[in-house]
Amino acid sequence: MTTTRQNVAELIGNTDLLKVQSLSNLTGCDIYVKCEFQNPGGSIKDRAALQMVKDAMESGDLKPGMTIVEGTAGNTGIGLALVAKALGFKMLTVMPSGQTPEKERMIALHGSELHLVDPCPFADDNHFYHTARRIAEQNDNYWWANQFENTSNMRAHYLHTGPEIWQQTDGKIDAIVSVCGTAGTIGGTSKYLKQQDSNIKCWLVDPDGSGIYHYLKQGTYQSSGSSFTEGIGIMRTVANFREANIDKAINLPDQDLVTVSRAVRDADGLVLGSSSALNLAGALMVAAKSGKGKTIVTFACDLGERSYSKLYNADFLKQKDIDENKESIETLFERYKASDDKAIVNV
Ligand SMILES: Cc1ncc(COP(=O)(O)O)c(C=O)c1O
């Protein structure tokens, strides 16, 4: 049945849950992805954008005629830009340079002003986060969304994404698996789902170059290596993360997400973005460690067209010393089954 909507923001949410047949057949588990690329801005961040704007309108912090400003790796900027248009606001996106040009283009296409800053550590005052904050502090007419500390972000997933998953699986779910950027997704869904059934396990998948895995293991933020993924990984504890109810954490390298991205592209017709492929690599690990018969849900946060110039660019991968033919998905699964359990952090 189709439904009539009044504006593009109303298209956000209610995404399908898709069984990934190839990985389900391989593992003997039911592995599902929540199709967040179905949101009108093409990513899971549309949900956070809409909830943050709605809550700020309701509280009176965001008033008609104001400009929304946000620091973002890109997808939140796209989401906020389309919500801003739909609800009558202007939008200024502050983004570090070096993210894929695909996202910069979409932000501009959605009518947002785009302010690029040089990438730098969080402690530097020129970091995109501080730049967005400063712009709002210096202009009464700007409202800063602040997706990291604004818990309307996780509320989007607590109020909607989590309940959708619960309903779509009829409550038969053993594990959720998620990467973490602002922690809105893992915060809201883990909180909701574990309130319904405390036996559901929540697994966090961290890329190289991020400090969350080490933080959950040893209490301090340290990272090793680097990752070409965007929008995920962090080196500090933010408000949305404090809401998360995490059981296990793993760290996986970019090589594995590349292997998984090719496998589901070729077998399932799913051309995923980098964080989504990492989510599925995480789901494969969960299946390897949990045994057959489990229902595992993760997120297709965006599609490959947003990662095209990195994840699907042979020259780029070569520079990173990543081989898309390094191993088959079957070999990866066997390797995960044989991998040391001590590498899994019990939170
Ligand atoms: C493609 C993609 N995947 C995952 C995430 C992480 O989601 P969250 O911020 O809810 O942790 C982001 C965040 O920007 C993203 O852009």
What would your notes on this structure say?
By secondary structure, the protein is of the alpha/beta class. The protein has two domains: 215 residues, Rossmann fold (3-Layer(aba) Sandwich); 101 residues, Rossmann fold (3-Layer(aba) Sandwich), CATH 3.40.50.1100. It is built from 14 helices and eleven strands. It has a seven-stranded mixed sheet with strand order 1-2-10-7-8-9-11, with helices on both faces. It has a four-stranded parallel sheet with strand order 5-4-3-6, with helices on both faces. Helix 6 packs across helix 7. The model has no long low-confidence stretch (mean pLDDT 97). Pyridoxal-5'-phosphate binds next to helix 3 and helix 7.
Number of spatially distinct domains = 2
- Rg, Å, rounded: 19 Å
Under CATH at level 1, the class of the largest domain stands as Alpha Beta
Order of helices and strands: EHEHEHEHEHEHEHEHHEHHEHHHE
How many alpha or pi helices? 14
State the low-pLDDT regions, or none.
none
Give the name of the CATH architecture of the largest domain. 3-Layer(aba) Sandwich
Percent of residues in helical segments? 40-55%
Taking strands numbered 1, 2, ... along the chain, how are they ordered across the largest sheet?
A: 1-2-10-7-8-9-11
Bound compounds, each kind once, are: pyridoxal-5'-phosphate
What about the largest sheet? Answer: 7 strands, mixed
Kindly name the structural category.
Answer: alpha/beta
User: What does the average pLDDT come to?
Assistant: 97
* CATH topology assignment of the largest domain: Rossmann fold
Give the overall silhouette.
globular
Distance between the termini: 43 Å
Question: Beta-strand level of the residues, as a percent range?
Answer: 15-25%
Strands, count: 11
Domain Tryptophan synthase beta chain-like PALP: 10-302
GO molecular function, one term: cysteine synthase activity
Protein name: cysteine synthase
EC number: 2.5.1.47
